[in-house]
Write a structure and sequence with these properties.
Blueprint: E1 7-9, E2 16-18, H1 21-29, E3 34-35, H2 43-46, H3 61-69, H4 75-79, H5 82-97, E4 102-103, H6 104-109, H7 111-121, H8 128-141, H9 149-171, H10 177-183, E5 185-186, E6 189-190, H11 193-206, H12 209-224, H13 228-234, H14 239-249, E7 255-260, E8 264-266, E9 269-271, E10 276-280, H15 281-284, H16 319-336, E11 363-364
Parallel strand pairs: 2-10
Antiparallel strand pairs: 1-2, 3-7, 4-11, 5-6, 7-10, 8-9
Helix pairs in contact: 5-7, 5-16, 8-9, 9-11, 12-14, 12-16
Bound molecules: protoporphyrin IX containing FE (HEM).
Residues 28, 36, 54-55, 66, 117, 202-203, 206-207, 210-211, 214, 252-253, 256, 308-310, 314, 316-318, 321-322 line the site of protoporphyrin IX containing FE.
């Protein structure tokens, strides 16, 4: 598509699709022309869980909402979580060390980010299976297609759960993100309940599925390319760069939505105001105009200006956390499982999503 139709209009759905690196970068960052607003500001009006969250806000509201949570996610704040993330990783890996084979998604890549985000939000870790179910349903809900009964019951269940949690924290504040958000004020005004719910559901989904897939995609890419595991063991300093290459080569988030705020043009294609638009991050990250040999997985690649975490004002808030979790988890896998390989004959099934990219299971032995 980057060659034949870099800006493609899907007549059936009415949406526009952008595939080239420069265009994707522009669509993600030029917020005045490409709005993140989905529907109105009121979730009951739009029926969307993220309607009142920063990922679907434009300035000035976006800047105000983002300023409330940036502190919790700066590289420095996140680095303080390293000992806890290491301890959790060790516990999870202890569980599989005694077995001859295991599903790395189930045993490590899924639980680690869920427990971390649950602890940050002050949610009992015991509820993490419910989190998984909810975030799976929400990811499938962001697909085109009709809403199902599962979607509405999940939305209802999740809303009730977070409302009860918010109420609990209001009465008994702790040292967690929800308690801090309850205290926060923008120009003398507290966040609305819809905005609090928006934050909870956004962090739940953004913080889970994406990091799970980064860790899973990394193990897949490292075991697939001969000699990679050995090289990373010999040169541990290469790991952060190797993680950036996984983010580029197998981007956990493949696409993001925008709506045109005014008549515009991308390349030489005119797009009217109010048009839904999809920026294909996965395609941009394989654009030969930006990357040499883009189809090659190269852990030594520099520079590597991938767009896996987006670009501009919506640049991923959780990027430092995702990078840290991936670094700790992958280093532990490299150290503790010298002979790690994909199980022979493993059938790898991709997740059913055009937005999130990862495999459902990763059997290793
Ligand atoms: C935004 C990807 C992990 C929280 C984004 C965006 C992308 C992205 C592409 C930009 C959205 C846009 O432009 O509309 C990823 C990937 C991750 C990851 C690939 C893991 C590998 C996380 C984690 C958290 C998080 C761990 C939180 C704990 C957020 C939030 C936003 C965001 C709150 C919205 C920021 C804003 O609109 O200002 N992420 N993310 N993400 N991400 Fe992540």
């Amino acid at each position: 598509m980057r060659e034949s139709a870099p800006v493609f209009h899907d007549e059936q759905s009415g949406s526009w699709h952008v595939f080239r690196y420069d265009d994707v970068q522009r669509v993600l960052s030029e917020h005045g022309t490409f709005s993140s607003k989905m529907g109105g500001d009121d979730p009951s009006e739009t029926g969307q869980l993220f309607a009142a969250s920063l990922i679907t806000a434009d300035p000035p509201r976006h800047r105000q909402l983002r300023s409330l949570v940036t502190q919790a996610f700066t590289p420095k704040a996140v680095e303080a979580l390293a000992p806890r993330i290491s301890a959790l990783t060790d516990e999870l890996l202890d569980g599989i060390a005694s077995k001859g084979s295991a599903d790395l998604i189930d045993e490590l890549a899924y639980p680690l980010p869920v427990i971390v985000i649950a602890e940050l939000m002050g949610v009992p870790a015991a509820d993490r299976d419910r989190f998984k179910h909810w975030s799976d349903v929400i990811v499938s809900q962001t697909q085109a297609g009709p809403r199902t009964a599962d979607h509405s019951s999940t939305n209802r269940e999740m809303t009730e759960y977070f409302l009860a949690l918010i109420e609990h924290r209001r009465r008994q504040p702790g040292n967690d993100l929800i308690s801090n958000l309850l205290m926060a004020e923008i120009e003398g005004q507290r966040l609305s309940v819809a905005e609090l719910l928006g934050f909870c559901s956004l962090l739940l989904v953004a913080g889970n599925e994406t990091t799970t897939n980064l860790i899973g995609n990394a193990v897949l890419s490292f075991t697939e390319a001969p000699g990679t595991m050995e090289r990373l063991r010999a040169e541990p300093a290469l790991l952060p760069q190797a993680i950036e290459e996984v983010l580029r080569y197998r981007s956990p988030v493949q696409s993001m939505y925008r709506v045109t705020a005014a008549d515009t043009a991308v390349g030489d294609v005119r797009i009217p105001a109010g048009a839904p638009l999809v920026a294909w991050i996965g395609s941009a990250n394989r654009d030969e105009r930006q990357f040499r040999d883009p189809g090659q997985f190269d852990i030594g690649r520099t520079p590597n200006r991938h767009l896996a975490f987006g670009h501009g004002i919506h640049f991923c808030l959780g990027a430092p956390l995702a990078r840290l979790e991936a670094r700790i988890a992958l280093q532990a896998v490299l150290d503790r499982f010298p002979g790690l390989a994909l199980s022979p004959g493993a059938h790898l099934e991709r997740m059913d999503s055009t937005i999130v990219y990862g495999v459902k299971e990763l059997p290793v032995s």
